[in-house]
Amino acid sequence: MIQAINYIEQSLRDSDGIQVTNPATGELIASIRSWSVADVSGAIDRADRLRPAWAAMTAQERATILLKWYNLILANEDVLAEVVTVEAGKPLAEALAEVRYGAAYVQWYAEEGKRAYGEVIPSFARDRRVLTLRQPVGTCTAITPWNFPVAMITRKVAPALAAGCSIVVKPAEATPLSALVLEQLAIRAGVPEGLFAVTPSHHSAAVGQLFCTHPKVRKLSFTGSTRVGKILMAQAADQVLRLSLELGGNAPLIVMDDADLDRAVRGVMDAKFRNAGQTCVCANRILVHDGVHDAFVEKLAAAVSALRVGNGLLADTQIGPLISPKEAQRVSQLVDDAVARGATVAAQAQGAPAESAFAAPRVVTGVTPDMDLASGEIFGPVAPVIRFASEEEAIALANDTPYGLAAYLFTGDMGRAWRMMEALEYGMVAINDGRLSSEVAPFGGVKQSGFGREGSAHGLMEYMEIKYAMMGL
After folding, report:
1. Which of 57, 94, 269, 327 has the smallest CB count inside 10 Å?
2. What is the DSSP string of 226-270?
3. For position 351, what pLDDT does the model report?
4. Is the domain of 183 the same as that of 281?
């Protein structure tokens, strides 16, 4: 940790600032500067001044710098992984996987930025030519969450920089250290200091409003709750600000009666229990066909009971703490409410530390769609199982939510897979797999899960405008 702190020592100067604690132990890690709204406004002004020179560089010149940043992230992956573990709580192996996953976005957009092609369009007149070109949208801002403190930043910053934009980022108060390390590595790689600026702040609501109303901001990318996303949309209206919103989810994981149950259990372990259930694409509801319900629950219960819970720095830990004791209490209350209404805890992992931020992984059966455990995001290591009797009922249950981020389906019938995939009202659907995130694929949702995409060529276009040029001959 000392090695990591050396990257960000210039920010560790405010004893009255943001207190960063290890959720596994409650230990104070660092006290860092909290940026005032005026300071953040100044960072936006500076980023906007630096932007034209960056935009004027060739795509290859920007790519060279981004690839240096990518290589520096990988060269310091152990340091970054340790920072992620101590500030976010996730097991060290998961933290290392996140660092590599986050770095992959930097590499991808370093290359993809060179392919932001325009078009020559067949003209409507003999004496005129029609063409388009792609240009950077301008100065951008981003607000990122605590659950993936590295990847949520690189997914936004890498395409912005590749496109020729500048970007000011407000990271989550709980996990600002990862962001500050990434910023310093970017500067070492050759990104002009201030072009990509990290501005941790206690003043979350005021900074969010500033990002929506500052006259030099042309785009805001936000990952967080639907409630806050709606507030930002309203605040951005007067500026007609370009937005990318990745909001809440209520992901179903459907197990059909023809599914490979062992594969489905592995899918649930990936989709539900990664990062202790604290991901926006977590399987929030496990929908299981009557015909295989009991057999599936038996296999899932055995897998969940065997999970090892503990401090993320310990080598054998599979499930770390939640981000705060408040979150652990909230998750326990959801389970207690479901049990009081007729559900049953069918399995529970043992050995969770006594510290209050830990929540034991559980399988809960007898869950009905009207229970709070099934209707909103759990954001914890609890797998609620809901029975269904037919393909039509499964689709109806899965779509009965205002959210539409991710869905998972396990079936051995590829005709059924296509049919159900098309019927599921989600921005992303994984078939026979519990992991779907990749830098090569467009990540994002529909309905109240937001709009816009991160990853793939679509993610680059979020930071570019199309200019049409008509040339008279």
Report:
1. 57
2. HHHHHHHHHHHTTTT-EEEEE----EEEEE-TTS-HHHHHHHHHH
3. 86
4. no
